[in-house]
Amino acid sequence: MKGNNNILERNNALFNKYEALLKMIQQGENSQFIYSFSCLHPYEKSEFFFLVDEEERLYMYRFLNSEEMAQVLSNAESLKHDMSIVFKEMPSDFAREAILKMSDDDATYVLNLLNNDQKSEIFNSLPEQKTNELKNLMSYHHETAGSIMTTEYISISPTMTAGDALKHIKSCSGKVQTIYVVYVVNNDNELIGVLSLRNIINSDPAQRISDVMNSNVIKIESFIDQEEIAHVMRKYDFLAIPVVDNYNHLIGMITVDDIIDVIDKEANEDYLKMAALDHVSDAEGTVINRATKRLPWLILLTFLGMITATILSSFEDTLAKVSLLAAFIPIISGMSGNTGTQSLAVSVRGISTGEMKKKNKFKHALKESTSGLITGSICGFILFLVIVIIYNQPLLGLIVAISLTIAMTVGTTIGSLIPFFMTKIGIDPAVASGPFITTINDIVSMLVYFSLATTFISSLT
Amino acid sequence: MKGNNNILERNNALFNKYEALLKMIQQGENSQFIYSFSCLHPYEKSEFFFLVDEEERLYMYRFLNSEEMAQVLSNAESLKHDMSIVFKEMPSDFAREAILKMSDDDATYVLNLLNNDQKSEIFNSLPEQKTNELKNLMSYHHETAGSIMTTEYISISPTMTAGDALKHIKSCSGKVQTIYVVYVVNNDNELIGVLSLRNIINSDPAQRISDVMNSNVIKIESFIDQEEIAHVMRKYDFLAIPVVDNYNHLIGMITVDDIIDVIDKEANEDYLKMAALDHVSDAEGTVINRATKRLPWLILLTFLGMITATILSSFEDTLAKVSLLAAFIPIISGMSGNTGTQSLAVSVRGISTGEMKKKNKFKHALKESTSGLITGSICGFILFLVIVIIYNQPLLGLIVAISLTIAMTVGTTIGSLIPFFMTKIGIDPAVASGPFITTINDIVSMLVYFSLATTFISSLT
Question: What is the pTM of this model?
Fold first, then answer.
């Protein structure tokens, strides 16, 4: 994130355009509005639509064509807006037309944001075949290939010539999401090859598709998790990837723009989970929304924190004798928490991006704990010097330094291993996040610190 | 991150393929190796190449063509490998040929990983024009549009017909990264329009480009930060975006596959920075590497932690009288740290993804602190009940509960505002991460807790 005047300028220019459009609506300059709006990029149409109020949107329903409304709704995914409100205000004919003109992955996305009554109203108004297609797509599990794929792709037969294929692509051009990748299927709709438009253009028009296609197709089954798809597409630099059922029948395709959204969303999720937040749209939540979503976690952590409190209270005698011990509680628990979180972050991202393999986990944990031991000894030594200088208490300094070293070594070990353990028992490791590690490390580090202190208490007092 | 048998199967199949290839090398089955290797996807060629040892790589330099070596090296970005070692073993003719056959953004990336001697050796062996092109690209600032763009794009003239344009695209097809987006420039090389191959295919071959092109081009200046480019490309669902200089001259293009790498990398950076780690490749670092990179941060945090320790030691009298107070230090500082980190995460990602505008910052902070007040009161009340039940000390419970509420309210406020402040003074807000917020919150919460405790000490003892 760096500030950038140029981008600000662009944004300002865009917002000036939006303001001009708003004025046209308010002053009823209909034809001028229709022209200016049509010149916007689909994303900008969407952004403008969701920025204005209901009154302006009502105006737009009268003056936009359903093609434009389809563009507006197709960007709902990046813009986040309460779709059920929009569909309540929108004339139902218009909603129907717009849904028909959207690509079916976008339509599925929007329909999933509506309430049940709205969904069935739209399904009733659509042609039966379209309804079945969309319902079928909506039946796939959330965040799997099936749920983000589109069924609007181009498939060709291996017996076609390259010239025929090009003609076919032209004729499909208006109905599909991308024409740049086409799939070759046999008579049973089994996926047997892939070709890019570039391959076809470069081929002799008389050549057979079966001779020029790539039959080593990398494909995805419908139940595969979207994060896995993102890995594959990122590795292979694909513009699209085909989706097949269990019998290798081609059932859909996923395009790169949808995968960019996935990568962004998954990274956001990992990031927010590390802070024990479980929702991406938190930045837009109301107060009650934010509070209720975080509360279960925080209450859980309160109870976990009571474990540390109970341990500490069992050392009340030690504390009563040397109350200065309490002054170093936050630093020891904090540092073991910090290093633990660092190790955790490296493991979680390593697993998420696929860089870290399970077989390396112990090697990785060993590296982390050694690094904890080294950094712990150095920070411990510094702390020892500071305590000797400020409080003139070398033994206290030694106890604090040794505790810090052990706490940081244990912290890094736990932090690096927990994510693998979580993956093993089937829990998303990003959830085993900062605060959890901190609690475990708190307990361990306080036990070490006060056991040491209690042992040497006679020399301390 | 979910486990997935299907993906594991695919990976196993791939690794079996790699093992078979390795065997072919070891048994000298040259022609079989050459054929099998050529059937791999470019990414797989790369993965195999970087998986094997020097001995096998030396074999490959003899049997692969430079086209294949270019594919291998082009994927260096996702695979991370010490390029200077590879270039040391590689015959210099072969290295030269491979660099010539790579797209220039990938070549720039690889050259930047070499040491200075290797760089100049390669530059000396390349044709002068190529050297100048690459040096020019390498002169752009790291992580800007200029540094990740390619200069191998297709530009056409507005006076061409669609049919001419299609012919021109076919003739360029072997030399450019993508043929799916072409840019229209005037005689001065100023960018005046954009067209997709789809537009061209759908146009009447006799139509003029100036009549069918989109003249509302969204473009990027060469100095724009890559994270900003990712925002724009994500919003608009582009396959490529043109790069211009200050005078609107077309100088390059950035393709979607490079942007996917950027999104992934930036998300990783944000994530690791939150844990006070500043490098993406930490997952591969040696022990010394990990320790030395983290040490400066940890030493800084040790000194920051001493501030809390000093504050606490100034309350030594209070602690000596009621040593049970110490038992609740970790829970109060921990909870204010946790909520602060949550608020921080929401703000940092909100700023990073562009969802959160500066003008909303106070509204956002108000929401966060109110949410902190609500969750703090509830957790505080629970803690109060637990302390009354376990320790039968209602006044202590009240002090802890009030301190927790204040600490969590302050924690959320600070956590939500700090990232905006950091952005304002030009520091990456992701760096103002967890541990920092935790230290500030520690100081505030301990001051509140012990001030309250000292005030009511007479009733407590």
Answer: 0.73
